[in-house]
Amino acid sequence: MKNGIILISIFVFTFVLVTISSSAYDDCKFACPEIEWQSSGSTPFSVPSCLGCNFIAYWSYRYLDCPELGVNWCDYKLDSISCVGCPPSCWSCSSIYTLTHSAMSTVIDQVARFSVCVQELPNDSCIANFSINYSSCWQYTSSGPGGPSGLKPCDETQCCKEIWKYCKDSVGNITGPFLVSQWGLNPVCESGQCITICEEFTPPPTINNINENGIFNHSLKTKVFPNPSADLINLQIESDTESELMIEIIDISGNIIATKNIVKKQSEIQLQFKLSSFSNGIYYFIVEQNGKQVSSASFNILK
């Protein structure tokens, strides 16, 4: 009798787990699936640990306006990753996690800012919404004995999602992108060649100076030039108050590459940084005041 109770308990517990997993997996489906993807494109990107590897992210885009969301939305999904003229070593210099997230960060930073969600954004607001969807299971593809030739999702279910925002200041300058939220679910990858990536997610650098009304805090402004750059880059900081600031340079994976502490007395200062020791790729300036991130700016190193 006791063994029977244990078996029943195991069956019920397994049924609950399967039900929960199935329900969660269903939640991974696209919102408003009847709205088709309007366009697709490709964007080159780099990974700091993969010098000389010319990766390309292939993505799709659609503009959502549906009751399920209750808001106009610019939706992106990552379709695949390839590498132009790359030796097999380019696929072993980094993890699938790093490759997919480097690709998505580049699409958000270099493609999404030109979408209708940003161009029609009113000044002094942060109401543009973006999502990046991607499969939680990925695998290498191969066209011959030479090794992998690309990366593609193992299925079309998009179980990982990131929500981003752009802002415009009072004169229409675009700031961002800023990560709002992220979530992921790793269903069991049926193929042994598929690798799960959602549980490894680490949010990239963001700032937290958007107030409860969604208006950007303009007390400190930053500008980066020239961008991209091969050797020297300038960071211009403007504010009306004297303050002690800490400036961090962070790579696309969130690693701190360099820090600098300054006391800003003038309303505007300009700092110059030498990039000769940096690898090609996307980096971020993070400006902190009293231990709080108050501004950020991205820049690209291209040698």
Number of domains: 2
Major sheet attributes = 9 strands, mixed
Question: What is the typical, i.e. mean, pLDDT?
Answer: 74
Strand content: 35-45%
Q: How far apart are the termini? A: 74 Å
Roughly how much helix do the residues carry, as a percent range? Answer: 10-25%
Structure description:
- The protein is mostly beta strands and 303 residues long.
- It has two domains: 173 residues, no CATH class; 81 residues, Immunoglobulin-like (Sandwich).
- Helices cover 15% and strands 43% of the residues.
- It has three helices and 16 strands.
- Strands 1, 2, 3, 4, 5, 6, 7, 8 and 9 form a nine-stranded mixed β-sheet that branches. A four-stranded antiparallel β-sheet has the order 13-12-15-16, with no helix packed on it.
- A hairpin with a 5-residue loop joins strand 5 and strand 6.
- The radius of gyration is 22 Å and the shape is globular.
- The N terminus is likely disordered.
